[in-house]
Amino acid sequence: MGAVQGAVAGGTAVGVTVDAVNRLTARWADAVTGGSVFSAAGVWPLLAFLADGASGAARAELADAVGLPADQAAAAARELLGAMGSMPGLNSALGLWTRRELAVREEWRAGLPAGTHGVLTEDLPASRRALDAWAAERTGGLIERMPVTLDEDVLMVLASALALRTEWPRPFDELRLSPDAGPWQGRQLAGLHRTGVRLDRAGVVSGPHGYVTELKVPGDNGIDVHLLLGEQRMTPGQVLGTGVDVLARRLAVVPSGQLPYGDVGPGLRVEQQRCATPQPPELRVTAVAYDMRARHDLLDLHGLFGLTTAMDTRDGHFPGVSPTPLAIGQAEQSAVAQFGALGFRAGAVTAIAGYGAGARPDLRHTTTVVTAHFDRPFGFLAAHRESRLILMSGWVTDPTPYGR
Question: Which domains does the chain have, with CATH numbers?
Answer without folding.
Answer: 3-162+293-356 (3.30.497.10), 167-289+367-396 (2.30.39.10)
